[in-house]
Amino acid sequence: MPSSDVLASHENEQIPNIPFVSSDEYELSSATSIALSESDTLNEDRSQRLDLQETFNDNFDHYLPFVLRRLRLRSLNETAQPSPDVQDMVDYDDQPTINEEDIYGTRENEVSILGVNPSSLNLKRRFIIAEEFIKGTTYVFPSEDSFARFKELRSAHKKNRKGSVTLFDKVGNPKIVATGSRSKDDEAGEIVDPRNHIIPLDQKLKGVGLPLFKVSVPYFSNFKKNAPYMVFHKYKELPSPPNFDENGDLIDNEFETFQFCTVYTKRYQEVKRYLFEFNCEEPFKVVAFQHCLKPFVDFNYKNTRFRVIGTPVVSTYASVYNPNLKLLIVDSSKPSLCDSIINKKPGFEISSFMKKKNKSKKEDQQEDYSMLAPEEYPNPYPDPGNPLLRDEFSLLYGGLGYSNNREYIPDELPPFGEFKDCLAYKIKMSLIPKKYSEVGRVEVYQVNRNHEFYPDNPNDNYNTNSTKSVTLDNLVINCILMTLRETSVRSTARPSSQSVLLASRIGGYRQSAPGLGAASFGDFTLLS
Q1: Which of 85, 122, 152, 219 is the most exposed place for a label (fewest CB within 10 A)?
Q2: Phi and psi based region of residue 302 (left: phi greater than 0; alpha: psi -120 to 50; beta: remaining)
Q3: More reliable by pLDDT, 28 or 472
């Protein structure tokens, strides 16, 4: 058809009114398309996806290191297809089991974490670790707001004490009254409290601004045999009344705290043992084993096999400090150092040789510990036949960063918690030292079925800024992660700034945590 006829045929058609769109508007419209706007995964901030999500189940789809690791493992599984000869030998009924089964499927509907379903773990608690300048005292707080409130109360502490006095009645209930407002009738059975509390008593009773723990590290544990490795002193919301002797002097020195957890360690050739003794209403113990040549620690708590990834390994040179410890659940198909714990026979003791202790035949006979729990053994130790101890290839290479064998990293479930040093995240740094400075964070999940836990809840038992809202499980996990953090600080060279840490990682020093080293994936870098 001639061109003139084509033009004539379209003369009577209406041309649609298409508005002019500039290049900037086009880029904006394409970036906010319907497909992208309805996708939560693609629109999330990249830094947000590198952190643990607000609920445990959200990590299955939104926690980027876990998602990419599962995709990487799935890709390796798909590439390892059986040869045609082997395929012919497989019966048709077995093909779905061998070839088509998703071995990297999740277990969120099958497992129980700390006795509850993972879907109930819908609250992420963030605990703040702070240190006091000059004194070096370490504190743990239930939230960031609680730490900020603590600093406010400490700065105005002397001012608040000038116009008030703390009293205890006959029953032991405390109260705060203004100076000079007491009557003679009230003075009869009341006890004046001259002690200096860490925060005002009215705030301490609520647990707001009060630290969870004061951590002490007796360094004589390196030289004294039975000295504790660490001691966690828990603060009491309701202090006990003051006690005086005959001379009128105070008897109790630690009136604000009590020993909640005492940690003992013992070093062996293959593992390092931690024994946590918890002093609560029903005292109990938790035993943990750190592999000397692989960067992980295993422990059991409430029928859940936990594994902490990122601990230092034994090396002849100073390892680089790892600012991140991940708390995971061991896969059901993988072994743990806490499987089949035995009571290890004591070896040669120099002290007993020097004292020339004569043991009778009855004392020499091996006692039966089958009725005791493993943590109650006199000398608990992993089963020598454990695959994690007998894997000679991993013992020689896997722990020193020369091998890509990372089979000790669990694949089925995302992390349940983590410790993160302040070097690993952005905080406001000041050239002038602060009296109280944040040095790290501990994140862990807990149950919040009815969403009763939230900040500034009038009920202190559910106020996330109060120490009363912290569960026993969170207290136990905090003690364990804080102990492993202390081991990392003692065993490695911790840098004083974030730039030094990044420079050491860029240099390729990944021997401190080969399981959590920086791995390149696409155009950015993540912790796998």
Answers
A1: 85
A2: left
A3: 472
Q: 310: how many CB neighbours lie within 10 A of its CB?
A: 25
Kind of pairing, strands 492-493 and 319-320? parallel
Angle at 231 between CA 226 and CA 233, to 5 degrees: 145
Distance of CA 400 to the CA centre of its chain: 24
- One-letter amino acid for residue 67 of the chain: V
Residue type at 523 in one-letter notation: D
pLDDT value at residue 147: 95
Task: Flag whether pLDDT at 175 surpasses 50.
Answer: yes
Q: Measured in whole angstroms, how far is the alpha carbon of residue 338 from the centre of its chain?
A: 19
Report the alpha-carbon distance of residue 219 to residue 226 in Å, rounded. 12
Q: Can you spell out the DSSP letters for 315-354?
A: -SSPEEPP-EEEEEE--TTS--TTTT-EEPPP---HHHHH
Q: With CA atoms as reference, report the closest residue to 213 among 284, 155, 158, 138.
A: 138
Buried b (16+ CB within 10 A) or exposed e, 132-157: eeeeeebbbbbbebbbebbeebeeee
Q: Which tokens sit at 363?
A: 């004392």
Name the phi and psi angles at 424, rounded to 5: -95, -5
For 467, which DSSP code? G
Q: Are 138 and 436 in contact (CB under 8 A)?
A: no
Q: How far apart are CA 356 and CA 342, in angstroms?
A: 28
Placement of tokens 């090396």 in the chain: 315
Within 10 angstroms of residue 288's Cβ, the number of other Cβ atoms is: 26
Q: Where are the domains of the chain?
A: 118-143+276-344+371-527
Pairing of strands 436-446, 417-421: antiparallel
With 0.90 as the threshold, say if the pTM is over it. Answer: no
pLDDT band with cut points at 50, 70 and 90 for residue 413? very high
Can you read off the two tokens belonging to residue 359?
Answer: 């043991």
What average pLDDT does the chain have?
75
Chain-centroid distance of CA 439 in Å reads 14
> Is residue 291 very low, low, confident or very high in pLDDT (cuts 50, 70, 90)?
very high
